[in-house]
Amino acid sequence: MSFAAVGRVVAISRARELLETHRLTAPPVPVERIAKALGARVRYAPLDDALSGMAYIKDGVPIIGVNSLHHPNRQRFTIAHEIAHLVLHRDLITAEVHVDKAFVLNRDGNSATGTDALEIDANAFAAELLVPAEWLKRSIAVQADLDADDEVTALAKRFRVSTATLQNRLLSLTRDPS
Ligand SMILES: [Zn+2]
After folding, report:
1. pTM for the whole thing?
2. Spacing, Cα 117 to ligand 1 middle (Å)
3. How far, CA to CA in Å, does 1 sit from each of 7, 18, 60, 111, 121?
4. Which range among 88-102, 114-128, 155-169 shows the weakest confidence by mean pLDDT?
5. Does the pLDDT of residue 167 top 70, yes or no?
6. How far is the CA of 145 from the centre of ligand 1 (A)?
7. 167 lies in some domain
8. What CATH number is given to the structural domain containing 27?
């Protein structure tokens, strides 16, 4: 297994641990509650559209900043992504304010091209936290026809993620069924 792949496996297992710790078994995942349980403060502010959010530690307290102008589903992904930095990359956000541009968070966690390894891991963590593979498989099993757009929309609504995020999750399930 490559170094990059190990990072992703660790990221995904940390996300699953968080779900277990909070005894979560069904969507939607309360990401803000999880952030607070980890000691973080979640702040919402209108930011430039090109920015999704940020994470940093101030006086020992993790702060997660979210672009309040983005769609609520995108805000949830941003919070999940910043939780990843808090859980996986605390050194990074302690050293400086970590700012996430919108295009970084829009990327599929499995596409490695040109993206910083830490961001790929954070996206993989966020995807698993918001749309756990197990839950998605279960949902698909009871959902009739996933080719239909409205079924994808219904699933995205249930998980409270964008349809793009849900489609990425479906793709990664077919690529890597584990
Ligand atoms: Zn990031």
Report:
1. 0.90
2. 10
3. 10, 24, 35, 16, 15
4. 114-128
5. yes
6. 34
7. no
8. 1.10.10.2910
